[in-house]
Amino acid sequence: MPRILRVAAAQMGPNQRADSRAAILARMIALLEQAAGQGAQLVVFPELAFTTFFPRWLLEGAELEQYYEAAMPNPETQALFDRAKELGVGFYVGYAEKTAEGQHFNTAITVGPDGSVLQKYRKVHLPGSVEPRAGATFQQLEKRYFEYGDMGFPAFYGPDAWGAPVMGQLICNDRRWPEAWRVYALQGMELMVVGYNSAAYDPNGGDSEDQGLRTFHSQLAAQSNAYMNACWAVTVAKAGDEDGSGLIGGSCIVDPNGRIVAEAKTLGDEVILADCDLDLVQQGKQKMFNFAAHRRPDMYSMITERTGAEPPKR
Amino acid sequence: MPRILRVAAAQMGPNQRADSRAAILARMIALLEQAAGQGAQLVVFPELAFTTFFPRWLLEGAELEQYYEAAMPNPETQALFDRAKELGVGFYVGYAEKTAEGQHFNTAITVGPDGSVLQKYRKVHLPGSVEPRAGATFQQLEKRYFEYGDMGFPAFYGPDAWGAPVMGQLICNDRRWPEAWRVYALQGMELMVVGYNSAAYDPNGGDSEDQGLRTFHSQLAAQSNAYMNACWAVTVAKAGDEDGSGLIGGSCIVDPNGRIVAEAKTLGDEVILADCDLDLVQQGKQKMFNFAAHRRPDMYSMITERTGAEPPKR
């Protein structure tokens, strides 16, 4: 029996710092309802979807702590979970997690159509810096505000109603690191879901990569890693001008051949959908990318033995 | 001082089994001269450039052995090396290697403008099978005819006249395996050169991947791995209808942003060129892909511990 999963990417426009949590959640519920109305079974939201991208500022104390969630769901997010369960729709969503022990992570969860959390993931590839850059209007302080993810790359099964796909989750910058995709693919991953907040330009005016090039990079990473790992991929932006700093859009759904089958056209709240035939992954997994037949791990040891690049001796 | 290297991809049309070695070499010298006439300093030829792609047949004895080179250069290839040295041009070329000990490898070398071999590489990711497929008109017997490359992924310096780039070499199928690019990038690789012979369709009529999709896959792998490893990439085909089996073209030169800057338009002998600003790799290597700052090798252990995919427990 064919395993066709109707997936939606729920791209979000910007969440301004002045927006209320309730107003942002109402937009997310509207996107969820729109996707469900079109038959979506799984809706993918962005990274840190409930708030503005706060690592762009140097914050402390209560001003910083307000962005973290001590539980998920919690009173400020419960309505999304309730509505999804009513509609029988699952979702992926990113948020800032604070544990009972006081640890902080950049986290995502995938929730099943029954409202249960299928799997949590904590972002491994944190960009930015610990110390603020002197004189910069905008920071990128993910390495200050979050600890490195400590769960590895845990693949999991989606529910039978989705065709029980082996799924993986990444967050933003992770999607540019082929190691992350590969560890999931080595667990048989068939469907990757990814939320992101990616700068459209250097908000401090420092470089030459424009919005078009950055969107190209984002889609290139999704397309190639979907191809090279023989999986479907759904990558979803928070986009547009958020508190004076631009974020790319370019949310897309990619097939196991690396082709974009659905793509957001705006920088605002926008739902795109695709029917993902999960068995299309078999062409790649059984032939070109039959790992058991063709990988040569004895030649890859440098990947785990070395962190930074070391040039050869002259 | 800027480091600008003018690189040519010397795509070759098909080498028929009936073609003489001398006729093929004359075509290669003509491509070399055409590239040198346009100022190329490095000319990249395809995989197994001196012959037809013989792993498509089940052969044995002298009929098979004729395709291997016991030395490189040798009397049948010396004229290419001599002409390149006269012109002061370096080149990459692929060939079937037979060692003094009787080992066989699918091999490539890069030769400097002074005629010296800068580095040899032996293909790690051999596709195909050891045993012939019963009833098939065309085989893919690389695993039968070659041993797995035993040199790892040895990065090396190009000569000072090229700006002393850190270079890497891959062969055909290797380019689809992100591990191979990453091991080179962990040695600071700035310029990757790759020759290939890639099927344009299943010559036995077995599948649905057409020539356009296969060319897209080839370029997607080159573009994304150049971007994710912050390097230039030159990937070069033997193309066209070779002995009744189709090969894709699509040779291209890719910048460190993953953009194609030059691309072959035919399936025949064709030279394309680009001026590669080697310092463009620094944007990626110092920021987004600063490996020392951002890689998390402790999370990648599955890449070397596992060969095939193993699904999670239910």
UniProtKB/TrEMBL annotation, chains A, B:
It holds the Pfam family CN_hydrolase. Signal peptide: none annotated. GO terms for molecular function: hydrolase activity, acting on carbon-nitrogen (but not peptide) bonds, in linear amides. It comes from Teichococcus deserti. SUPFAM superfamilies: Carbon-nitrogen hydrolase (SSF56317). PANTHER family: NITRILASE C965.09-RELATED. InterPro entries: Aliph_Amidase/BUP (IPR050345), C-N_Hydrolase (IPR003010), C-N_Hydrolase_sf (IPR036526). The lineage of its organism: Bacteria, Pseudomonadati, Pseudomonadota, Alphaproteobacteria, Acetobacterales. Keywords: Hydrolase. This is N-carbamoyl-D-amino-acid hydrolase. The keyword Hydrolase applies. Residues 5-278 form the CN hydrolase domain.
